[in-house]
Amino acid sequence: MYALKPERAEDGTAIDILLDHAFGANRHERTVYKLRLGTPLAGLSLVARKRGSLVGSLRFWPVELDRGADAVLLGPLAVDPSLRGQGIGKALVAKGLTEAARSGYGLCLVSGDPAYYRPFGFVAADPLGLALPGPVTPGHFQVKELMPGWLALARGTVRPATGRSERAA
Ligand SMILES: CC(C)(COP(=O)(O)OP(=O)(O)OC[C@H]1O[C@@H](n2cnc3c(N)ncnc32)[C@H](O)[C@@H]1OP(=O)(O)O)[C@@H](O)C(=O)NCCC(=O)NCCS
Fold first, then answer.
1. How far is the CA of 79 from the centre of ligand 1 (A)?
2. CATH of 3-160, one of 3.40.50.300, 3.40.47.10, 3.40.630.30, 3.10.129.10
3. What digits encode the pLDDT tens for the residues 81-139?
4. CA 37, CA 48: separation in Å to the nearest integer?
C-alpha cells in the first residue's frame, strides 16, 4: 500500500531522479517549464510513498491568465516504473485537484495526454481561447474548471503568477 503526502523540501532530490527517469534529463526544455518557476505550490504538491520510499510525484504551480481566476498548472506527474498501473497516478491527480479546488483556485491547466486527463474533467484549452507560451504536442493543452463559472471568463496566454501570494492549501 502507498500513502499520499504533501511534498517536503527534502523530497527534491528523489523527485528530480524520478522525473529525469520519466521525462529525460532535457525535460526542462519543454514549454511548460517556462511556467514552472521557483518552488512548486506547497500543500498542493504531493508525493506517494511506499514503505518510506518516494514512488510518485505530482506538482502544481501558480499561474495567471489575462482574464479569469487564479489558476494552477498541474505537472509533472510521474510514478516509479515498477509501480505503474496500480492507481497511484490517478490517486495523486484526484487528491491534488480536490485540494486545489478547496484552496480556491478556479482553473487547473495541464499539458499531457488527453486520454489520461479527460476522465478527470479536463477539456481542450486552445479552442477556449487559452494558450501556452510556446509549442506543445497538439491536443495536450487542457483545462479543468475547479470553480463554476471561471472557464467562461478565462482568456489569454498562461504566464507564471506574479503579485499574488501563494495560497496555503
Ligand atoms: C502516466 C503515469 C504517471 C501513470 O501513473 P500510474 O500510477 O501508472 O497510473 P494509474 O495506475 O493511476 O493509471 C493507469 C491507467 O492510466 C493509463 N495510462 C498510463 N499512462 C498513460 C498515458 N500517457 N496516456 C493515457 N493513459 C495512460 C494506463 O493505460 C492505465 O489505464 P487503465 O486504468 O484503463 O488500465 C506513469 O505511467 C508515468 O509516470 N509515466 C511517465 C511520466 C508521464 O508520462 N507523465 C505524464 C502523464 S500524461
1. 8
2. 3.40.630.30
3. 999 999 999 999 999 999 999 999 999 999 999 999 999 999 999 999 999 999 999 99
4. 23
